Amino acid sequence: MTTTSAPNQATPPNRSRRIISISLAIIAALVVAFFVFANLYADWMWFAQLGFTTVLTTQWVARAVMFVVGFLAMAVPVWAAIQLAYRLRPVYARLSSQLDRYQEVVEPLRRLAMWGIPIFFGFFAGFAASAQWETTWLWANGVQTAVTDPQFGLDTGFYMFAMPFYAAVLGFASAVALVSLLLTAVVSYLYGSVRVGQRELRISKAARIQLAVLAGLYLLLQAASLWLDRYRTLVQPDDRITGPGYVGANAVIPGQTILAIAAVIVALAFFVTAFMGRWRYPLIATALLVVSAIVVGAAIPWAVNTFQVRPNQLSLESQYYQRNLDNTKAAYGIDKVEKENFEAATQAQAGQLRNDAASTAQLRIMDPAIIGPTVRQLEQYRSYYQFAEPLDVDRYQINGQSQDAVVSLRELNTSQLGDANTWQNSTLVYTHGYGMVAAAGNERTADGDPVFLERAIPGTGFLTDLNYEPRVYFGEQSPPYSIVGGPEGGEDIELDYPLGADGGTETRTTFRGDGGPSVGNVFNRLIYALKFQSEQILFSDYVNQDSQILYDRNPKERVQKVAPYLTLDSDPYPTVVDGRIKWVVDGYTTSANYPYSTGVSLSRAIADSNNPQPTYALDDINYIRNSVKATVDAYDGSVSLYAWDDQDPVLQTWQKIYPSTLKPWSEMSADLMSHVRYPTDLMKVQRSMLGVYHVDDARSFFQQDNRWATPNDPQNANELQPPYYLTMKMPSQDAPSYSMFTSFIPASQGGQARNVLTGYLAVDSNAGDAQGTKRDDYGRLRMLVIDAATTVPGPGQVQNTFDSDTNVSSQINILQQGQSQVLNGNLLTLPVGGGLLYVQPVFVQSSGDTKLPQLRRVLVAFGDKIAFENTLSEALDTLFGGDSGADTGDESVTPTDQGENPTTPTNPSVPAGDYAAALQEARDALNARQQALTSGDLAAFATQDARLTAAVQRLLELEAPSTGSTQNQGG
């Protein structure tokens, strides 16, 4: 007898395991949610402490609204399309075996798919829409500019604020229509509404209506896009200009109009088909539309350009070139450049600089890009302090006189703490830098060092006399975060500054400002422990109920967070204003949609030898304004935004989006007004455009026979020469003013141009010193157009003359003997004496580990004459017939390195004739050695090299009794 065992009963689900799994999932979700909340709450506290919560809430609300709109705008139509296609399917349609198998697979997942697919596409669309919130808000708040474009007569605000929004909406709507159309086709095919077989396509009436209507809607959207493209041509490159030329205005734009109308007609054909049932007509119309697009969009413009424009380009394109000239100049603020034809004098005569003595008095001989190591060696005091590289420039009123200065802050460098770089030290003890260092730009000591106007710890100088706040809690080199503050009468734990040898005496302090969110309670400490991944914040006994956490301390970073719509200048600078150190940050409003304005790469335009090429979110722009001046307090980090260009329509629009975040510029104090300046990056962008757009008429623009370029830095041939700030007087000015200048040489292909000056541009950078009033001349661009009949050497040619002059090179060789290294400073150009004067300080430093650049010589050039002396005063006198008539900052200086003077020995027992003979021998040997090297005669080169060495040794011997080993003085 055979028995069959009963099948095993199904194992009941493990309820405990399910509960554990669900619990773990809930806990994981709560943990993730708390981390997200912690990040959002930390942002809220940061903005609330600064008083800019509206900036954060505006972004949150806008992103949330746009996400919901984008989600619904995609998910609802897609859901409706799928539902309609499924519900209107033929119930008794005979399906192929293959479709039966498809349905068997799809049917179990149908409900999930019919809801999941719309949600899936909705999430993607929501995130895409939230990223476009700024475009939408600019459209909703856009202002009129009262300036119309020359093609359609529309306000330029339409192009900058509305057109990007319309383009985004049309692109989004087209995506929705296309996705809905494709999903309708898929569902209709799976459920038999669309059948393909036996070389025949069968479509049910319901599917036909749905597909035809969706196709018609898609074509209507394309028609609207084609219509909008007519306006977009005004901001798109077209041959040599941005904006439509003759071909664009007479072929492309009319062609786009025709295609838009044709697309509407084809869309109507699809709507008719939805009810008439004939696909032939819309399909033929679609094919004709494609052919028309090729003919009208490509063939006709090509024919017009080839057979009509090219043979008559100037006559046909002139008005469009003029449009581009006028609008580009307006967009970059270079439409009011004051030009002056300049017949530069090239002959130097005695007393020639007497009328320009005020300009030469402020000539900067202390190069901020070179003397950084010197300032560090003299003013660092402890290794955990540091100075910026390069140093900044500013000007101050001292004893009633304006003084150009080289400045920097003594900031923290906690990486130099070594083994002492613990969490407690780097977070609680070493919290701030201390003091500003300022040196006169036009003066030097007898040793070639800077003449300090403010220095030391504790400070001494004119700023200390003003009793300013020297502590730097917020700077470019501040630690990522510090925890400061404590109860009144509590123990001071922050190192304020060291005193005495080996830190024998230290002063300590406690931060008393309002500089960061509170971490005085456990919850806030937990939030920031998570944010900075530091459990010490939570458990340290030094964190008390009055503690604050300071972070995001870089001034650019702080301004960028509270004004995210601004593009910030790459060179914030510190200045002492009303007893506080303030960082001044220039902010720009930009656009890429100004009609008929040629675009520029912002990153490439501002890159030079002092500023590596940065990265910007909006790099290609065709409109820029210095609309905001921002300040960041170095002690408490407070941010103030001033609407500097309150007439800028872009700024006015952003003010409507972020109300109450900007102050009127009239509230800037008189002291602050005296320290704001014309921004560097704006000048760089403007000079980049002026290379082509300095001409005024279409013919000159067409011929481009006078294109200019910014010269390369003579000390770095691969980078552009930066603009420089100087107090100087242009020929059309009555008195010197704090200005920024740059020069131009002829543009070339392949670097084959002559390096001669063709233009000199200066912009008045002095805003004045009265509250509520800007100087009329502030921002005035003055251009000297060098007369073509006069040859004025360019910076590269002047540098080559300096380097190749035998007298100069022989002295340079003497300066760099032994362990010394010669550094050429900034090559400055000054319009004085009826011509253009070049000035270059020459520094010497040790080639060893310890760098201490000291000013040893000054090179000057005027016309084809040069001079190379110990001081600027001596060099100018030598250049201009023994008495230049100029005043300089180093007139009263007698350098201690007279042993390096090429004309007078320092040892009085040595006859001057012996010294001169030894010097001449060194020069002759140097020239002979160079000739041997050029001719490839290595034997002669070795002989002359030995001769040069002997001559230099003789010079050293002649100087030795008085100066010791001069070869090491540079170090």
TrEMBL record:
GO terms for cellular component: extracellular region; plasma membrane. The keyword S-adenosyl-L-methionine does not apply. Keywords: Cell membrane, Membrane, Transmembrane, Transmembrane helix. The chain crosses the membrane at residues 19-40, 60-86, 112-133, 165-191, 211-228, 248-271, 283-304. This is UPF0182 protein MTES_3127. Belongs to the UPF0182 family. It is a multi-pass membrane protein. It comes from the Bacteria. Its main location: membrane. InterPro entries: UPF0182 (IPR005372). It is found in: Cell membrane. Residues 879-912 are annotated as: Disordered. Pfam families: UPF0182. Residues 891-909 have a biased composition (Polar residues).
